[in-house]
């Protein structure tokens, strides 16, 4: 796989109910928002864009294209992945791989895209995700555009909403990461944010 045939979509389409609402990517840590830090980390990707709902103009200062969900009613990150894949199919026909990353995980390794693509080639799989500390992280993954039709059917015809329900049915290879703090630490609640601050200041 070459370095020119993948895209990265930062998933910012959630409602962040557990964090009190709003865009979790706009949380400021050390003078930068989570989203700004991720954009800086992955700015060398061949194509980097956002999946977000509502008024995309609120992200204009980041300079990235904003792709909203196609399906109504905030159906979750799997719906965001579907929108991202359809956007690629319609606008970047030579791109065959999509990396999806959440905007609320501040420690994602900068090598994640190449790590997952190397694994996809080695294991001849269309889907790669990650695990750490005995937990899987389905919202972080590498998706081949070959699964688009199956994803569309699962979402629209079968009502599948959980990422791992789809990836397990299709077949997914998991990369196991180690490290403290957890490289996939996810900031879902105010307590998570407090724990993260305590971790990085320790």
Can you describe this structure?
- This protein is α/β, with parallel strands linked by helices and 202 residues long.
- The protein has a single domain (6-201), classed as Spore Coat Polysaccharide Biosynthesis Protein SpsA, Chain A (Alpha-Beta Complex).
- The protein is built from six helices and nine strands.
- The chain has helices at residues 34-41, 77-91, 112-123, 148-156, 163-170, 190-201; strands at residues 6-11, 28-29, 32-33, 48-51, 66-67, 97-102, 127-132, 135-144, 173-177.
- The strands form two sheets. The chain has a seven-stranded mixed β-sheet with strand order 5-4-1-6-8-7-9, with helices on both faces.
- A hairpin with a 2-residue loop joins strand 7 (127-132) and strand 8.
- Helix 2 crosses helix 4 (148-156).
- The chain is globular.
- Mean pLDDT is 89; it is low at 15-20.
Number of strands: 9
* CATH uppermost class: Alpha Beta
Low-pLDDT segments: 15-20
- Gross morphology is globular
Tell me the helix content.
Answer: 25-40%
- Give the helices and strands as they follow along the chain: EEEHEEHEHEEHHEH
CATH architecture: Alpha-Beta Complex
What's the total helix number? 6
Give the termini separation: 40 Å
Overall pLDDT, averaged? Answer: 89
Class from secondary-structure proportions:
alpha/beta
CATH 4th-level superfamily: Spore Coat Polysaccharide Biosynthesis Protein SpsA, Chain A
């Amino acid at each position: 796989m070459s370095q020119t045939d993948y895209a990265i979509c930062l998933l910012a389409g959630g409602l962040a109910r557990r964090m009190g609402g709003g865009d979790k990517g706009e949380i400021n840590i050390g003078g930068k928002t989570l989203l700004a830090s991720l954009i800086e980390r992955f700015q060398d990707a061949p194509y980097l864009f956002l999946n977000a709902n509502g008024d995309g103009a609120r992200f204009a200062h980041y300079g990235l294209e904003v792709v909203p969900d196609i399906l109504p009613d905030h159906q979750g990150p799997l719906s965001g992945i579907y929108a991202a894949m359809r956007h690629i199919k319609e606008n970047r026909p030579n791109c065959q791989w999509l990396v999806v990353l959440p905007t609320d995980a501040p420690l994602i390794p900068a090598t994640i895209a190449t790590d997952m693509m190397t694994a996809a080639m080695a294991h001849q799989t269309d889907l790669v995700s990650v695990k750490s500390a005995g937990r899987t992280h389905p919202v972080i993954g590498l998706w081949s555009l070959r699964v688009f039709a199956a994803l569309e059917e699962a979402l629209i015809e079968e009502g599948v909403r959980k990422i791992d329900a789809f990836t397990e049915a299709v077949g997914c290879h998991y990369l196991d990461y180690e490290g403290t703090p957890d490289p996939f630490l996810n900031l879902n609640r105010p307590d998570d944010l407090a724990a993260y601050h305590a971790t990085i200041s320790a």
